[in-house]
Every structure is written in C-alpha cells, then in structure tokens.
Specification:
The chain has helices at about 25-35, 45-65; strands at about 5-10, 15-20. The chain has about 70 residues and is an alpha+beta fold. The chain has a two-stranded antiparallel sheet.
Length: about 70
C-alpha cells in the first residue's frame, strides 16, 4: 500500500490505474520513477511534466557520460 487514500483499478491491458489524493507530488514522482518504463503518469499534468523532465535529465546524464 503506497498511500492511505489510494484506490486501484484494473484495466483491460493488464495494467492498473492508481488514484490518490496528496499535496506532495515529489514523493509520488520518486515512487513512479522506481518502476521505470513500466509506469506512466496520466494526471495531473504537473506530475507528468516533472517525470518527463527527470527522464530527460537522466537521459542526458547517461548519454553524455564518458566511459
């Protein structure tokens, strides 16, 4: 259980939609990122943009890393 207010909805493709109420999107962002490409933020737009930005920064870091 991630959050006290959470509800889970099974969807046809085998995935799950998690819904919750929070004022701290940073914690949710970190939770989503632990699932990598197996999770997608649908809403709210601010959280989706925060995850997109984090992924861009991670991509840049790894692609520009010298071996």
């Amino acid at each position: 259980r991630f959050h006290d207010t959470q509800t889970l909805e099974d969807i046809a493709d085998g995935g799950v939609v998690l819904r919750l109420t929070t004022s701290a999107l940073g914690e949710v962002k970190r939770w989503v990122l632990q699932y990598g490409s197996h999770a997608e933020v649908l809403e709210p737009p601010d959280l989706r943009q925060a995850v997109i930005q984090e992924v861009k920064e991670m991509t840049s870091m790894y692609l520009n890393q010298r071996n």
